[in-house]
Structure formats: C-alpha cells, structure tokens
Write a structure and sequence with these properties.
By secondary structure, this protein is an alpha+beta fold. The protein has 3 domains: 156 residues, 2-Layer Sandwich (Nucleotidyltransferase, domain 5); 99 residues, ATPase, nucleotide binding domain (Nucleotidyltransferase, domain 5, 2-Layer Sandwich); 69 residues, Actin, Chain A, domain 4. 37% of the residues lie in helices and 27% in strands. Helix 2 packs across helix 3, helix 4 crosses helix 11 and helix 8 crosses helix 10. The longest helix has 19 residues. The N terminus is likely disordered.
C-alpha cells in the first residue's frame, strides 16, 4: 500500500484526521491541531423510531437510567463494531462536528486504529463506517503499533520494543521492530471485563445489583491488582436482589482485588505468551529496555506491579496512557513517509 503523495491541499490542518475508535472512548486528532475530541463511545437510541437521543458524554450519563423505549448502547464491543448502523451514525456525528468546525475544503483522509486481531470482515465494517461518515480515504493502523509510536518508542529501528495496550474491550500486547509487529497477542479482555467482574462479585457476595457505571466508579476509586499501601473503602449503592429495595454496602479494596483477579490473570497470561513467542534477540532487547503500558486499563493501581513480578521485567506506565493510541496515529499523520509501512488500506 502506497501512501498518496501529499499535495499542498492535503497540508491544510483539518484535511487529515486520526480516529481512535475505542470500545469505551472515541478520540479524534486533527493534523496541525492535536486532539480535538474525546467522548465516550455511547449512543442513546429511541427504539420505536431509531432516532438518536444522545451521543458521547450525554448518552453515557443515560446508561442504566433510560425509560422504556430508549436504549443507551455501546456500539463497539471487544474493540470492534458490534452494531454497524449505530457506529456509523456515531462516527458521522463526531466527524461532522469537526468538519463543521474546521470548514473542510475537501473530504478528509482518515486513519482509524483497529485491534491487531481484527478480521477482514471487521476491517470492512470500519472502512465502510468511516467512508459513510464522510471520509475520502480510509487507512488503518494496529492499535499496539499506534500506542508504541504514541509513547515514543523507536519502532522503525531493529531494536525490540514491547508495548501493552489495555483498552476498554481488548488488551493488545506486541513486540515491534523495523516498523512491523514481530509477535503479538490480542485478547478480548479489558476494562469492561473488570467492570463485569465487579458486578458479578457484588451480586454473588452481597446480593446487590449494581450497574456498569457504578462498577466502573468502584474500579477507579478503590480497585487494585496488587496489595497497595493505604487500601481504601467506599460505599456501593444498588438494589437488593432479595428484598428488591435500594441498599448500601461498604466494600474494601481487597474485595475488589479478589473480584478482578481472573481478568487480571488473563492479561498476565497473554503477556507471558507474547514473550514466549518472541525471537531471542528481541527478547534480550526487552530485558534491557523493559515494557511500556498504555491504554486506560493500565491506570488500574498495581497492574504494572503484578506484570513486573510475573515477568521479572521493568514496566512503566506512560504519563498519559488514555491518549497514547491517538497521539501515535497523529504522529503518523505528521510524518507519513516515515510511517507509511505501518498502515493498511
């Protein structure tokens, strides 16, 4: 695939766009301006008429709170499109809001980040959604590659670079060298699975039914993958499954650590598997350079500690892990000649 020769028109700031179409959040980067949009990947739909009642943050506030007839949904599941029509409308809404703001002279070129384990059918769905939303040309880049570029790893060198991208729906682990992914593992376990594990734990241990937004709040406030100094407690509110009335219980960090143990172990196993299939020369580079973590899931306290203990390798979390992928895609836009080999059409 050859990146098209840039014309003067394509150097206009808003003519090239990078999209991190994530399970939890959608981020958009405009060349020359940086990140211009960061919204939850949630859409509220009126079921009878299929009318959109809200998109992004407005729709996320409706999760678990909608009356009959209105459904707040996440159109992406496990990093890929689950509902093509709703995803297209969401992407169209985001892109059109940017197009209107920047007054495009021509339809933009768009790079979309996708999981490394994406199928051809899923790729076609992404491409069709972006084109229907107003893109002139659509290119794709694997999320771990974009994350590695975003955290500043020299992916074009022969040196082995390893990145772990823990997103909402997927965890992508890759060893990268010479602008290619040498070994990788993509598992459909991420922040959403941690939330679900907390929901199930509360149901099983307290007979308390909580929604995903409450589970996410618990995860952020007191969740940890390893014992930490100053473990915390908080109140969790939900509906008692026995009496059917609202109830409040007090939970501790150690309980949430127990709740999320299984998905955390799946991430650990995926990292170990990637290391096992990595060529020895690149493995020696990783011993020297360590591993970088990106993605919102890497903010779970102690996850880097657990992975470091399991692999005996130094691990660091990027300063701004939530935006690593879209920042990396933005760098590809800024220097297409350097990074053209990482793109697919």
């Amino acid at each position: 695939m050859r990146w098209p020769k840039l014309s003067l028109g394509s150097l206009l700031p808003a003519n090239e766009i990078a999209v991190d179409l994530g399970t939890s959040n959608t981020l958009v980067y405009v060349r020359g301006e940086g990140i211009v949009l960061n919204e939850p990947s949630v859409v509220a739909v009126e079921q009878a008429t299929s009318r959109i009642k809200g998109i992004g943050l407005e729709a996320k506030r409706m999760l678990g709170r909608t009356p009959d007839g209105i459904l707040a949904v996440r159109p992406l599941k496990d990093g890929v499109i689950a509902d093509f029509d709703v995803t297209e409308r969401m992407l169209r809404y985001f892109l059109e809001s940017i197009i209107q703001k920047h007054v495009f002279k021509v339809k933009p070129k768009v790079i979309v980040c996708v999981p490394s384990g994406i199928t051809e059918v899923e790729k076609r769905a992404v491409r069709d959604s972006a084109q229907s939303a107003g893109a002139k040309e659509v290119y794709m880049v694997a999320e771990p590659m974009a994350a590695a570029i975003g955290v500043g790893l020299p992916v074009e060198t022969p040196t082995g670079n390893m990145v772990i991208d823990v997103g909402g729906g997927t965890t992508e682990i890759a060893v990268i060298a010479l602008s290619g992914i040498v070994s990788d593992t993509s598992i459909r376990t991420g922040g959403d699975e941690l939330d679900q594990a907390i929901v199930q734990f509360m149901r099983k241990n307290y007979n308390l039914l909580i929604g995903e937004p409450t589970a996410e709040l618990i995860k952020i406030q007191i969740g940890s993958a390893a014992p930490m100094d100053g473990d915390k407690e908080m109140e969790a509110k939900g509906r008692d499954l026995v009496s059917g009335i609202p109830k409040v219980v007090r939970i501790h960090s150690s309980e949430i650590r127990e709740a999320i143990q299984e998905p955390v172990q799946q991430i650990v196993d995926a990292v170990r598997h990637t290391l096992e299939i990595t060529p020895p020369e690149l493995a020696s580079d990783i011993v020297d350079r360590g591993i970088v973590m990106a993605g919102g899931g890497s903010l779970i306290r102690g996850l880097d500690v657990v992975l470091s203990q399991e692999t005996s390798l130094p691990i660091r979390v990027d300063e701004d892990p939530l935006t690593c992928v879209v920042r990396g895609t933005g760098r590809i836009l800024d220097d297409p000649d350097k990074y053209r080999s990482v793109l697919t059409s």
